[in-house]
Amino acid sequence: MEEHGYNEDEFFGILALARHSRDLYETSGQITDLEDCIAYLRDALTVGPRDNKIRAEVTHNLAYDLYIYHIDSSDQESPDNDNALGESITLHQQALRLLPARHTSQALYLTRLAIALRARFTQSGLKDDLQECISLHRRALSYRPHNHPDRSQSLLNLANSYWTRFELSGSIDDLQCAIRFDTEALELRPSGHP
């Protein structure tokens, strides 16, 4: 079987269509626009270059849009919706493996995978998903030093994950971690921050 050759114009044209569909979705709220975006991103992966950074970015965008699809179509009973979250998690994991170590997008990729795992935990109750969620949020925080503008959001994500585990376990240690991370996040937000 012959592998499809890389055609830069075709690849970037497909990505432009995906972006356009995503923008349409942002304004229209029509799930079909998001479905189009997902289809274009799948196509982009089949014709795209084998460069890990580019594949990581397209894979990550597809994973995130599948997560959004899962959330925004959750009121519709559909096998596609049920499969979207699992596929999103798998693709987030692939994107992280493709991304070079210490890449500036590491924290974002880790955070989005953690959020998808927490969503799956709320549906399935799989404790391993929640544990991995906490671990990923901790890793993401390590990429956001004290002066990083997104550090407070990472702290809030981590606090929320510990709070979720506290609700499950009743562990005072989890509650104390949630309070500590929430407090630190609050201290990083200036007075009057929305």
How many beta-strand elements? Answer: 0
Mean pLDDT metric: 90
Share of β-strand residues: under 5%
Report the C-alpha radius of gyration, rounded.
18 Å
Helicity level, as a percent range? over 70%
For the report, how would you describe the main beta sheet?
Answer: none
Low-confidence stretches: none
Distance between the termini: 56 Å
Order of helices and strands: HHHHHHHH
Give a concise summary.
The protein is mostly helical and 194 residues long. It has helices at 8-28, 31-47, 52-72, 79-98, 106-124, 127-142, 151-169, 172-188.
Can you give keywords for this protein?
mainly alpha; 77% helix
Structure overview:
The structure is a single chain. With 194 residues, the protein is an all-alpha fold. Helices cover 77% and strands 0% of the residues. It is built from eight helices and no strands. The chain has helices at residues 8-28, 31-47, 52-72, 79-98, 106-124, 127-142, 151-169, 172-188. Helix 4 runs antiparallel to helix 5 and helix 7 (151-169) runs antiparallel to helix 8. The longest helix is centred in the first third of the chain and has 21 residues, at 8-28. The protein is globular, with a radius of gyration of 18 Å.
